Amino acid sequence: MNAVRKPKIMSADDAVSLVKSGMTIALGNLSSEPLALTAALWERAGELRDVTLVSGMMLTGYPFLQGSGADAFKLRTWFMPGTLLGGKAKDLKADFLPLTWAQTIRYLDAQAFDVVLMQVSPADRNGYHSFGINTSQMRAMIRGAGMVVAQVNEAMPRTMGDSLVHASD
Fold first, then answer.
1. Cα separation of 21 and 51, whole Å?
2. What is the pLDDT of residue 96?
3. Residue 32's Cα: distance from chain center in Å?
4. Which of 116, 121, 123, 138 could make an SS bond with 131 (beta carbons 3.0 to 4.6 A apart)?
5. Which residues have CB under 8 Å from 66's CB, separation 6+?
């Protein structure tokens, strides 16, 4: 029987201080991007090197691939947005994974991420958070994660199906 872990509650800055150089980080994307966590991570660009970020389309854009972020972060993505296809695309540290949606989920499910940064709804009375509007990718991302850091968003809706994760996870 697995021991139940008590979740740690901390600031976004403290949470991303757990990210170290050389790690592979999976990020919630689109409307599930954990904005406070990604902003805090981008602020650490000057301290980090060779951090691989695995994600789809980022709502905040891709500022982390330029300036000091160019040495800190590399993006591995299955979504090649126009912001990466501009004139400087050849200089960006980004790998495009030409995957169908089903292949993307299998790819994520087969990875061992050091850290997953995600966004969830508030916990219910039993301690379960919902992945909300991004149920397809998050389960695959956290399955093999060494650590999961979740930003609780009061506005994230609870959804049905295989969308729950316990606070202890």
1. 6
2. 87
3. 9
4. 138
5. 88, 92
